[in-house]
């Protein structure tokens, strides 16, 4: 039994001043046992219903739509601007933006509304907006990427929601820092995998590096996406909401089969509690622990495994357009950044000093 059973009914509510998810069903010992085995649900004698805390985990477990932003955000927005904020979020949903982008844009737009207080956001002039972004620069000391995000969110509201053109023609954007991707050597990658003793955790890192996946794609992998006979992996709705096919390394097949026999996943390759997808934060924590255990001092996140995958392919002579397809990059320019960090290519270049 699981929570797709139509006898369960879930709906939002509040209980003792907290946001909760109410769970209703006819009294049934098996259904109560299922609920208790997967959650810390409590019974409300007053409301005659079960309830759990309203959070991301429970919403995923019950197949409820995820909130774009938390309810706490709404309490800080003036009532006068609240309808515009809700309209902004509805437009993001209608445009089909990914949950991560919708959440990022909503948070950035909310920051503007906090500053405005009771001033109507739709009445802002280009001059007032310019003053706001100067405030972000000078007072808040935001980074270039944070200011870009705020500009994009506000631009989306005025140009997409209100259909006003050319609102930002006089507002210059800060130049983004051109940072090279952080990567690991093959020796370092091997060491990180070797020190990870838990089979599930080790396979996560192998998949991340061996297939060149983003951590969000690793946790979203389903058993049906893996074609071991063709040695292909289907990445469903990756960044930019695009599907793509990538290669399944021969060296991963045995480890995957052994892992499956031990853990018996049902839907996702890597499952957490109650069969839900493993949390991306947990995979990041696995990588951080492995990095420390391997004695590697580099300040690098799990995305560095994907960077290393691309760089190592380039070093072995793989065509850059093929790497672009494997990584799921829309533009070749995005992939070309790896040409700046290939040590092997740099080592083949001789300084004019050597020929004097």
UniProtKB/TrEMBL annotation:
<dbReference type="InterPro" id="IPR002104">
    <property type="entry name" value="Integrase_catalytic"/>
</dbReference>
<dbReference type="InterPro" id="IPR010998">
    <property type="entry name" value="Integrase_recombinase_N"/>
</dbReference>
<feature type="domain" description="Core-binding (CB)">
    <location>
        <begin position="79"/>
        <end position="162"/>
    </location>
</feature>
<dbReference type="Pfam" id="PF13495">
    <property type="entry name" value="Phage_int_SAM_4"/>
</dbReference>
<keyword id="KW-0229">DNA integration</keyword>
<feature type="domain" description="Tyr recombinase">
    <location>
        <begin position="179"/>
        <end position="351"/>
    </location>
</feature>
<dbReference type="InterPro" id="IPR013762">
    <property type="entry name" value="Integrase-like_cat_sf"/>
</dbReference>
<keyword id="KW-0233">DNA recombination</keyword>
<dbReference type="GO" id="GO:0015074">
    <property type="term" value="P:DNA integration"/>
</dbReference>
<comment type="similarity">
    <text>Belongs to the 'phage' integrase family.</text>
</comment>
<dbReference type="GO" id="GO:0003677">
    <property type="term" value="F:DNA binding"/>
</dbReference>
<dbReference type="Pfam" id="PF00589">
    <property type="entry name" value="Phage_integrase"/>
</dbReference>
<protein>
    <submittedName>
        <fullName>Tyrosine-type recombinase/integrase</fullName>
    </submittedName>
</protein>
<dbReference type="InterPro" id="IPR011010">
    <property type="entry name" value="DNA_brk_join_enz"/>
</dbReference>
<dbReference type="InterPro" id="IPR050090">
    <property type="entry name" value="Tyrosine_recombinase_XerCD"/>
</dbReference>
<dbReference type="GO" id="GO:0006310">
    <property type="term" value="P:DNA recombination"/>
</dbReference>
<keyword id="KW-0238">DNA-binding</keyword>
<dbReference type="InterPro" id="IPR004107">
    <property type="entry name" value="Integrase_SAM-like_N"/>
</dbReference>
<dbReference type="InterPro" id="IPR044068">
    <property type="entry name" value="CB"/>
</dbReference>
């Amino acid at each position: 039994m699981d929570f797709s059973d139509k006898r369960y009914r879930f709906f939002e509510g509040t209980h003792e001043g907290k946001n909760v998810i109410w769970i209703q069903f006819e009294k049934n010992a098996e259904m109560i046992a299922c609920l208790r085995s997967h959650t810390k649900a409590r019974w409300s004698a007053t409301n005659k219903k079960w309830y759990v805390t309203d959070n991301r985990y429970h919403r995923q477990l019950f197949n409820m739509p995820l909130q774009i932003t938390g309810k706490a955000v709404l309490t800080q927005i003036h009532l006068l601007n609240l309808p515009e904020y809700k309209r902004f979020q509805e437009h993001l949903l209608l445009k089909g933006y990914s949950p991560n982008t919708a959440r990022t844009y909503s948070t950035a737009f909310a920051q503007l509304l906090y500053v405005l207080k009771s001033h109507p956001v739709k009445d802002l002039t280009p001059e007032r907006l310019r003053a706001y972004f100067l405030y972000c620069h000078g007072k808040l000391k935001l980074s270039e990427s944070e200011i870009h995000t705020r500009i994009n969110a506000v631009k989306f509201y005025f140009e997409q929601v209100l259909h006003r053109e050319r609102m930002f023609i006089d507002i210059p954007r800060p130049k983004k820092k051109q940072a090279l991707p952080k990567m690991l050597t093959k020796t370092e990658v091997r060491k990180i995998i070797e020190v990870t003793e838990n089979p599930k955790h080790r396979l996560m890192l192998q998949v991340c590096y061996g297939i060149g996946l983003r951590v969000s794609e690793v946790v979203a992998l389903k058993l049906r996406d893996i074609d071991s006979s063709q040695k292909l992996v289907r990445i469903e709705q990756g960044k930019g909401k695009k599907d793509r096919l990538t290669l399944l390394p021969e060296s991963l097949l045995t480890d995957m089969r052994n892992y499956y026999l031990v853990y018996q996943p049902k839907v996702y390759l890597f499952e957490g509690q109650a069969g839900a997808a493993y949390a991306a934060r947990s995979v990041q924590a696995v990588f951080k622990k492995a990095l420390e255990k391997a004695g590697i001092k580099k300040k690098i996140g799990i995305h560095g495994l994907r960077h290393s995958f691309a760089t190592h392919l380039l070093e072995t002579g793989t065509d850059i357009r093929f790497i672009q397809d494997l990584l799921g990059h829309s533009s070749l320019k995005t992939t070309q950044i790896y040409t700046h960090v290939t040590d092997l290519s740099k080592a083949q270049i001789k300084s004019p000093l050597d020929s004097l």
